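Title: Comparing notes on inverse folding

I've been comparing how different people in this forum approach sequence design from structure. To keep things fair, I'm posting one structure and asking everyone to reply with a full sequence. Here's the target:
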């Protein structure tokens, strides 16, 4: 297996995408690998899309995994079923989307792997619904949002990295996200700054930026970042889950956490800061010279981490 997973980035493309009704959404997703293979669900972050895993998926499929890569709500071909549904992006809502997807696909449990919003979503499922998570790969470790902690300022260098979060708290930021040109340039700037060593080309960015044309994209992004800072309300239906998450529940499923050395959001300490949140079989790795978009910057190493987590 180790040899097969040494592959680097290439010219991979997903097969034609699928759609499935799942809870509040019609979820668009890519699927690669044998239909009866052990399922792996790969979850993207912001400002990214399913193509963060376009080189990871075939590597895992070659090892017999059934790889499912969904667009999160507000991205790509994923759509809300009802026009009046509140465009809510609080963390438990997104996690329940993935539970609904698993139900719709008939998946009892899966290996969950993600970064950014995707890592948070995977962490939440592993914490609240451990029976649905066979193993976990989480970039950044324990990234479940702590809204009470978010009321306190960070060190200035850390606040600087979060500039867009504070921009989105303003009407200027909301208007910028609704403007196609400004949204394009803003997300491209984020790619450049959080992945300083990744030499991607224009076509790679534009392929992903197409997912930002979703009609709900701006509303979902703005709500997500405002909700984190307690500047926007969630929905009552999710309060029981958020109360449980506020208690910082431990994660007991087999877990492999990843840190990216050049990611400005990586917490110093080689995983020590969040080690106590993982109580089951555990491993940790730091990827040298890699930035925020870990699966697309280091697909071979990410795929290997998924396979290794599955064996913990």
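Reply #1:
Here's my take.
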């Amino acid at each position: 297996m180790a040899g097969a997973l040494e592959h680097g980035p290439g010219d991979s493309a997903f097969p034609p995408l699928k759609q499935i009704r799942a809870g509040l959404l019609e979820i668009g997703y890519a699927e690669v690998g044998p239909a009866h293979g052990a399922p792996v669900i790969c979850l993207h972050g912001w400002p990214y899309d399913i193509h963060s895993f376009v080189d990871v998926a075939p590597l895992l499929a070659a090892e017999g995994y059934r790889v499912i890569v969904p667009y999160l709500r507000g991205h790509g071909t994923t759509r809300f079923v009802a026009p009046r549904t509140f465009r809510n992006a609080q963390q438990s809502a997104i996690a329940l989307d993935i539970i609904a997807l698993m139900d719709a696909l008939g998946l009892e449990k899966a290996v969950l792997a993600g970064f950014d919003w995707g890592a948070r979503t995977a962490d939440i499922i592993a914490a609240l619904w451990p029976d649905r998570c066979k193993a976990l790969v989480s970039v950044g470790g324990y990234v479940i949002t702590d809204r009470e902690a978010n009321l306190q300022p960070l060190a200035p260098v850390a606040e600087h990295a979060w500039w867009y979060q504070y921009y989105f708290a303003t009407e200027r930021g909301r208007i910028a996200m609704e403007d196609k040109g400004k949204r394009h340039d803003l997300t491209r700037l984020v790619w450049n700054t959080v992945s300083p060593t990744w030499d991607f080309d224009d076509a790679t960015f534009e392929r992903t930026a197409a997912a930002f044309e979703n009609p709900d994209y701006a509303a979902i992004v703005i709500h997500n970042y405002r909700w984190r800072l307690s500047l926007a309300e969630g929905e009552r239906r999710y309060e029981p889950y958020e109360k449980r998450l506020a208690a910082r529940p431990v994660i007991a499923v087999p877990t492999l956490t990843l840190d990216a050395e050049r990611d400005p959001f990586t917490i110093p300490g080689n995983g020590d800061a969040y080690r106590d949140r993982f109580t089951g079989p555990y491993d940790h790795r730091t990827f040298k010279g890699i930035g925020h978009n870990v699966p697309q910057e280091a697909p071979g190493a990410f795929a290997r981490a998924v396979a290794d987590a599955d064996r913990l």
